[in-house]
Amino acid sequence: MNIQLHFDQIRHSPWLDQFLEKRLERLEKFLRPDDRVHLNVKGHGQHFESHLSVQHSSKKFDFSAQGENLFESFSQVLNAALRALSEERKNWVRTKKLK
Description:
The protein is an alpha+beta fold and about 100 residues long. It has a single domain (about 1-99), classed as 2-Layer Sandwich (Double Stranded RNA Binding Domain), CATH 3.30.160. The chain is about 40% helix and about 35% strand. The protein has 2 helices and 4 strands, in the order βαβββα. It has helices spanning about 15-25, 70-99; strands at about 1-10, 35-45, 45-55, 60-65. The protein has a 4-stranded mixed sheet with strand order 1-2-3-4, with helices on one face. It starts with a strand and ends with a helix.
């Protein structure tokens, strides 16, 4: 899994990069090594916006959320991605069993 992080109007540090990458590794069980994950985090004064794009096989998933802090918005998009990819895998397994 290829992870790319992008920050807009936010000062980030190696600690923040490591924190976000570690959390994004939870997606690995649903993805292939060549799948791409792109996280874009923006600061807007009193709130933050996170946008997560996942390129999985031939499908692209996009998730966005806003929060009062970076961790709130990031947690929302990560949880949405985990739910969607889990459902995608369940559907794939069901389809394989029907064949």
